[in-house]
């Protein structure tokens, strides 16, 4: 049981970038004190960034114990994917008996959950995990009808949280961790968890590989905290804009590039703990949303009048940290040449915001209202070669991070998919087209085209030196 109490009252330093009124009104209006703004405006912590400062709740209270017990049962039974090759009769029967228990659950009330963001987060995590266990243990020939004991409370909870009723990045990463060893404490509270002192609370497959897959993203989030602080410091200096401020911004951008390269290293290190074959065949299928369902099935939520529409699976593209880098550096709005990111791909990037916690969406909106964008500032001072080089170094580091992401996708998805396609064609040479569908990410995107388009857009954002 987590020692964290379900309360939404957070310390004043909980948010890193307060909404600065001068961003909205203009510098000439003067700086207005915003220290009384509620911490939940952004839910960004100075120690842990977009992750909560303390481990998320690991269990709901007794009123909702049937949900927790149902999830426990799924993990303890080690339920198997319906698409698993060689699925035994015993495994099929185990899944069906568990699904019958789900259908017999009572429809529990959710009104008392709405008093606490922490309870709502845990409830969303538990119910979406149960839902994905239910859907992906069903035979592919079966329609997907999510039972009322899950669908009704999940849709209500998701409405309060303003996120879709489906497993998201926040369910797998942000609100699914705990510490291994006790942390040191000082007058300001507990130290942030060390990158090697994390474990996941819940997994679908029960494998270390799945845990390491989640923790790679969690470690990126924690290392990215310093990047968020550099963004704040840079924006402060942009409102000064004198010679000293320019020198500081130059140093901050170089440091930001260094941090993003650390994120790249952490990303590539996932190979040390997560086997590609295990990931592709035993982990990734649990994440699929409705738009990447292997049988193209639609999901029906029993007892819900207005059926949910946003049901893509979790994706690294739902990380607010990476979007924040784009917004801060102006990579989300800069023009690109033909062959870069298309309008449809821009829409997909924006779509990822739908799956983020609402506070983090507010953070991105606030970041985008900065009246002195760093990219505009750099272009106006193009004769300052050092500043320009620092900005380009930061942009290049993001491009290299995306190169690394494409490499990981190639290792963990593209290569296993190619092997699977070859095996399918050998087994059934009369129907080779069956394995040649567009490769989609768990978020429903045309995976390769999307990632390369975003990467290329980032590379094109480098500002060329203009001869004087």
TrEMBL record:
Is the keyword Acyltransferase assigned to this protein?
no
GO cellular component term of the entry, any:
cytoplasm
One GO term under biological process is:
L-tryptophan catabolic process to kynurenine
| Binding-site positions, heme b | 405
- Entry annotated with the keyword Metal-binding: yes
Q: Which UniProt keywords apply?
A: Heme, Iron, Metal-binding
Provide a Gene Ontology MF annotation, just one. Answer: heme binding
Pfam families assigned to the protein according to its UniProt record, in alphabetical order: IDO
Q: InterPro entries, alphabetically?
A: Indolamine_dOase, Trp/Indoleamine_2_3_dOase-like
Protein family membership: Belongs to the indoleamine 2,3-dioxygenase family.
Protein name (database record): Indoleamine 2,3-dioxygenase
Native source species: Suillus luteus UH-Slu-Lm8-n1
């Amino acid at each position: 049981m987590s020692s964290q109490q379900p309360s939404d009252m957070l310390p004043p330093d909980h948010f890193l970038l307060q909404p600065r009124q001068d961003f909205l009104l203009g510098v000439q209006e003067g700086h207005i004190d915003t220290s009384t703004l509620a911490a939940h405006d952004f839910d960004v912590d100075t120690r842990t960034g977009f992750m909560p400062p303390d481990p998320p709740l690991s269990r709901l209270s007794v009123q909702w114990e049937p949900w927790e017990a149902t999830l426990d049962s799924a993990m303890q039974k080690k339920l198997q994917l319906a698409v698993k090759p060689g699925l035994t009769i015993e495994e099929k029967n185990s899944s069906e008996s568990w699904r019958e228990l789900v259908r017999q659950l009572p429809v529990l009330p959710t009104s008392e959950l709405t008093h606490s963001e922490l309870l709502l987060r845990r409830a969303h995590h538990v119910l979406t995990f149960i839902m994905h266990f239910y859907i992906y243990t069903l035979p592919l020939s079966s329609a997907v009808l999510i039972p009322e004991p899950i669908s009704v409370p999940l849709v209500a909870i998701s409405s309060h949280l303003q996120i879709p009723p489906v497993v998201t990045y926040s369910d797998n990463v942000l609100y699914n961790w705990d510490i291994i060893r006790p942390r040191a404490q000082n007058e300001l509270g507990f130290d942030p968890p060390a990158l090697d002192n994390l474990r996941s609370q819940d997994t679908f497959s029960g494998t270390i590989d799945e845990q390491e897959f989640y923790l790679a993203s969690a470690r990126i989030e924690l290392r990215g905290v310093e990047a968020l602080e550099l963004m704040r410091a840079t924006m402060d200096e942009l409102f000064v804009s004198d010679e000293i401020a320019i020198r500081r911004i130059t140093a901050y951008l170089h440091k930001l590039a260094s941090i993003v390269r650390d994120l790249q290293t952490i990303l590539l290190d996932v190979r040390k703990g997560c086997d590609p074959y295990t990931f592709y065949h035993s982990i990734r299928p649990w994440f699929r949303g409705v738009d990447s369902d292997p049988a193209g099935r639609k999901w029906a939520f029993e007892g819900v009048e207005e059926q949910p529409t946003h049901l893509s699976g979790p994706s690294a593209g739902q990380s607010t940290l990476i979007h924040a880098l784009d917004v801060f550096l102006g990579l989300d709005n800069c023009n690109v040449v033909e062959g870069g990111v298309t309008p449809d791909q821009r829409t997909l990037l924006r779509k990822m915001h739908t799956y983020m916690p609402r506070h983090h969406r507010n953070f991105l909106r606030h970041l985008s209202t900065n009246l002195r964008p760093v990219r505009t500032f750099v272009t106006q001072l193009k004769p300052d070669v050092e500043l320009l080089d620092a900005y380009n170094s930061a942009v290049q580091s993001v491009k290299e991070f995306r190169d690394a992401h494409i490499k990981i996708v190639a290792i963990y998805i593209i290569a296993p998919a190619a092997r699977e396609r070859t095996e399918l064609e050998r087994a059934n040479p009369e129907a080779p087209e069956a394995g040649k569908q567009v490769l989609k990410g768990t978020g429903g995107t045309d995976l390769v085209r999307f990632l390369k388009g975003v990467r290329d857009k980032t590379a094109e954002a480098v500002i060329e030196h203009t001869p004087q």
